[in-house]
Amino acid sequence: MKPTTKLRELLNRDQLTVAPFVMNGLLARIAESVGFEAVYMTGSGTSAEKGFPDVGMLTMTEMVMSAKYIVNAVDIPVICDADTGYGNALNVRRTVREYESAGVAGIHIEDQVFPKKCGFFEGKQVIPMEEHVQKIKAALDARRDPDFVIIARCDAYAVNGWEDTVVRCKAYRDAGADMIFVDGIKSMEDLKIYATDLNDMPRLYNGDLVATQDVDALGYKLMICGSTPWLIYKQVKEAYEELRDKGRVDPSRYATRFDVAGLLGLDDIYELEKRYGAQ
Q1: In this structure, are 130 and 261 located in the same domain?
Q2: Residues 167 and 208 both lie in one domain
Q3: Cβ contacts of 188 within 8 Å, gap of 6 or more
Q4: Alpha-carbon gap, residue 220 to 15, rounded angstroms
Q5: How many angstroms separate the CA atoms of 159 and 275, rounded?
Q6: Do 241 and 221 belong to one domain?
Q7: Are residues 193 and 136 located together in one domain of the fold?
Q8: Backbone dihedral angles phi then psi of residue 277, each to the nearest 5 degrees
Q9: Residue pLDDT, tens place only, 162-176
Q10: What is the pTM of this model?
């Protein structure tokens, strides 16, 4: 089954699909190995992996290349951050085609100005609603696979308030977006209002305010979460501090190189070497 069709089936279930944040093939493999049915290529994490804050410094080409590695690493659907679509409605057309060609199952496109900022950072701005409506229409027209999921992300809450957010989300859904994603949700109250005021459309929640079970109970279809970049920062920083201060990192912190290599398919490589006589 195509990854796009798999994702459609997941989103059509009467339960929440949880897609952990990943930013490379290794993390995607780990997520798949513990049983997750989809993963989410985080824009903030991908930027961090390249050494940048999430303020629109990466190009579409760099993001798509990262997505290709993740897609090739797993057999589960990959959902990707496509930022603003990297320009106007015409740029959005190419963005959709590139992500689709990479094997991605779905993307979200936000209504921020280009270049964007992380949805939780100060200083972000949004484009006029009608301009983003046209971007959504362009995205839908550009996809070759009708199962490729187009998610309309709205960043207006922190900029223009909740009333404008609701109006925008309804317009994006009316334009044909498969799902709505309000970013910048900061409290359980926000999460409940989001569920109540937009209860007639499929919704995505980004965050870790509450357990996935609680988000499921509110009727959300997709939750992207895990805060992987911030988890890695804390754990690796502590290990480096231990190395600096004590001269050695406690071996109990580590898996083995064979644990990781096994996850990444080392045994399959050995079998292929035997089959083809390669050394």
Answers
A1: no
A2: yes
A3: 209, 210
A4: 8
A5: 59
A6: no
A7: yes
A8: 65, 30
A9: 999 999 999 999 999
A10: 0.95
